[in-house]
Amino acid sequence: MHTLHVWSNCDMATCQSDATDGYGLIRDGALVIEGETLAWVGPRAQLPVKYREPHVQQHDAQGALLTPGLIDCHTHLVYGGQRANEFELRLNGATYEEVARAGGGIVSTVRATREADESTLAQQSQRRLNALLREGVTTVEIKSGYGLALEHEAKCLRVARALGQQNPVTVRTTFLGAHAVPPEFAGRPDDYIDAVVAMMPTLAKEGLVDAVDAFCDSIGFTPAQTERVFAQAKRLGLPVKLHAEQLSDSDGAALAARYQALSCDHLEWLSERGAQAMSQTGTVAVLLPGAFYFLRETRLPPINWLRKHQVPMAISTDCNPGSSPCTSLLLMLNMACTLFRMTPQEALLGVTRHAAQALGLTDRGSLVAGQRADVVFWDVQSPAELCYAMGANPRRQTLLAGAAVQV
Ligand code: DI6
Ligand code: FE
Asked: Which atom of ligand 1 lies closest to the CA of 322?
């Protein structure tokens, strides 16, 4: 039998689904952990007597606000090099598309990633992961998509898996082979999609793939090409997600919904029809304010349609070298509110319960009995403070599956 641990002298934003306020706020709460799992959560005054017995370990949370462990559900965290030069080009007048078409952009990171060996990639990625962990991230999704050849996609996914084994965090991997056309397939996107489809069974068999993603856009792949990747994912029993409607409306969201996608991501150009399609399949809208900000976009994702059709919204860093070199999920909370006009409640659910849903994880994302004991203790009075401050990090401590984390 596991030792029971009770934490009290705290407030909690439980983020539970049946909360009447969005936060599921409990003032003067108590939280009971048994092994890796939450055994009881509620107001301290209602703590069952069995949790007051002498063998139960009592802990003082010293007035902290507790939230679920944060979940960064969309990152490209494993890559080689950086693209400050391109940032500079854009500030001298070039557009993101122009840089991409001139052989910069994603393809330049592909070069750097192919040249890097596993240990170099791991070392560069570890630094970015550390920054996320210091802000209370307990689950992170990492996509491939800078290798674009079997050997290099496998290398990146193995680095991602190893990061998960060597750090106090759950890593979920996503195969994004259809991210860009690599130089050796220039002008032959359909042939490259053949190659992507052929890579999938091998990577899946190695246990390197939790989900499959594609970049469906004017500078990415067409809906028909995307669908071939999705069909293969379906044959392999893998869930899909999609970079959709980032720079143009390709009707990608509706396509992804037909494949019961876990999420559609970016979505600045989403149509109301797309939002409706997502709503019918419970597909999560993952919004990425870092990319919107960094590319100085002006078209806002249609938050009102997402609200109207009750599409769950998640928020993520999109951590990548080209459109969002960002390793702060807390800053994304702030930007989701200031740039996208989301409420702090929506934003917090976006990095907890709805982010879990975007990854197909049902065992985390809220502080509810039965969930995994991923808990962050914050030095704030109210949950809105997590969204309000820019550049602050009020994290006091993190529990991952009940165990205290050192980061
Ligand atoms: N959309 C993005 O914003 C990133 N990938 C994608 O499909 C950008 C990736 C990069 O520029 O390196
Ligand atoms: Fe992305």
From this structure: 11
**Residue-averaged pLDDT of the chain:** 96
**Residues ≥6 apart with Cβ < 8 Å to 235:** none
Q: Is 221's pLDDT higher than 80?
A: yes
Query: What total of structural domains would you count in the chain?
Result: 2
Residues of the domain holding 370: 4-68+366-404
User: Looking at the structure, do residues 136 and 233 belong to the same domain, yes or no?
Assistant: yes
The CA distances from residue 98 to 101, 244, 398, in Å, are: 5, 20, 43
Is 219's pLDDT higher than 90? Answer: no
pLDDT of residue 102: 75
Residues 249, 173 share a domain: yes
Residues 53 and 147 in one domain: no
Cα 121 from Cα 79, distance rounded (Å): 6
Position in ligand 1 atom list of the atom nearest CA 96? 11
Final residue of a structural domain among 342, 358, 374: 358
φ/ψ bin of 167: left (φ > 0), alpha (ψ from -120 to 50), beta (otherwise): beta
Q: Say yes or no: 96 and 127 in one domain.
A: yes
Give me the DSSP letters along 195-217: HHHHHHHHHHHTT--SEEEEEES
Same domain, 214 and 157: yes
- Identify whether residues 75 and 46 lie together within a single domain: no
Report the predicted TM-score, pTM, of the whole model to 2 decimal places.
0.97
| Segment 260-269 mean pLDDT | 98
* pLDDT band, very low/low/confident/very high, at 100 (cuts 50, 70, 90): confident
- What CATH code is carried by the domain that includes residue 388? 2.30.40.10
Give, using CA atoms, the residue closest to atom 6 of ligand 1. 215
Ligand nearest to the CA of 241: 2
**To test ligand 1's pocket by mutation, which of 76, 146, 292, 324 has the most ligand atoms within 8 angstroms of CB?**
76
C-beta 291 within 6 A of ligand 1: yes
Name residue, tokens 């990639």: 121
By C-alpha distance, which of 383, 363, 359, 380 is closest to 371?
363
Start-to-end CA distance of the chain, whole Å, equals: 28
Same domain, 78 and 127: yes
CATH code for the domain of 198: 3.20.20.140
Residues with CB in 5 Å of ion ligand 2: 318
